[in-house]
Amino acid sequence: MNMQTRLRTLHCSQTLHQSQSLALRHLVALFALLIAPFISRAQDSQTPRNVSSNEYTLRVNANMVILSATVLDHHSTPVSGLDKGDFQVYEDRKLQKILQFSHDDIPVTAGILVDNSGSMAPKRADVIAAAMAFARSSNPQDQMFVVNFNDSVSYGLPPGILFTDRQEELQWALSRIRTVGQTSLYDGIVAALDHLRLGTHEKKVLILISDGDDNVSKHSLAQVLDMTKHNSATIYAIGIFDELDGDQNPGVLRRLARETGGEAYFPQSSKEVPSICEKIAHDIRSQYTLAYVPTIGTEDGSYRTVEVRASFHARGHLSVRTRSGYSVPLTLPAATPKGIPHDSHN
Q1: Close Cβ partners of 145 (under 8 Å, ≥ 6 residues apart)
Q2: What DSSP letter does each residue of 40-98 carry, written as one string?
Q3: Which residues pair with 145 in a beta bridge?
């Protein structure tokens, strides 16, 4: 082979190699473009969605007191658009420094407590519709559970399911128990407060729907109130009372709501309950969250009163609804009911 032929062969070989390299680079680029959307989806699936970063910063200091506050104007209309500087927090009448502030719609752990005593039978369909209206109006990432109570107390969801965000499971949990017997209201609240501790969201609420006073509970009202002082849950109560029923006790529902920062409602008819539950869901989603570390750092087991004030010149006088105080330390007492069963087909 002469020199000219060798040069032509070498040139062809180099040209072929360059063509193969270029083709390979194009193939790699094309492959990268094809898999990019899948990589993006995988990354998105590992990133929490619609969760405020404040939900995590509020957990940094274990000594923090975290308050949920609803602000209302003189027409009882919720007020939005306030900043941290518009609030003042007092503990035992001493001004506290607000370290964290948020007005985001963050997920909550929510328990729905339903009275299934015999007197609730005519109102059952409206109560279930109300609970489902609350679920539909709530944050889609909320953790929800159901506690049913009559002569006894039981969790509504199937065994192994602590919480759900699926409406069909809530419907099943609310519908499967019969309305019979008497009312173990206090035992139901104790079981719900106990279950709330298993939730992973910082913000916790209970929705209580009942038509009468307690008459068969093992726990007393004093024990329930003591538990609420050690628990950050906000209680919303709906009393569906019959004027001819001598068991009604609206004062209990008002006190539970007032001391935990919630609200008590007393509709004229069970038909009004679904719209009330929608209002409660809106209230929860529009609350302000404030956190502070108490100036008194000792954990002496005492009860500390809390007051939150808000002012904004353009809205006139504002009222703030939040819990009235808490007990130190912020832990539940050891004596809580064990072995609460799940609903059976009774």
Answers
A1: 110, 111, 112, 155, 156, 157, 162, 163, 164, 173, 195
A2: HHHHHHTS-SS--THHHHTTS-TT-EEEEEEEE-TTS-B-----GGGEEEEETTEEE--
A3: 111
Pairing label, strands 234-239, 264-265? parallel
Alpha helices in 138-288 (DSSP H): 167-175, 185-196, 221-229, 250-260, 273-285
What is the rounded (10 degree) CA torsion for 84, 88, 94, 96? Answer: -10
| Prediction pTM value | 0.78
Can you read off the two tokens belonging to residue 313?
A: 């010149």
Q: How many residues does the chain have?
A: 346
Tell me which amino acid residue 11 is: H
Gyration radius (Cα) of the chain, Å: 28
Question: Which tens digit of pLDDT belongs to each residue from 185-236?
Answer: 999 999 999 999 999 999 999 999 998 789 999 999 999 999 999 999 999 9
Neighbouring residues of 16: CB distance < 8 A, sequence distance ≥ 6: none
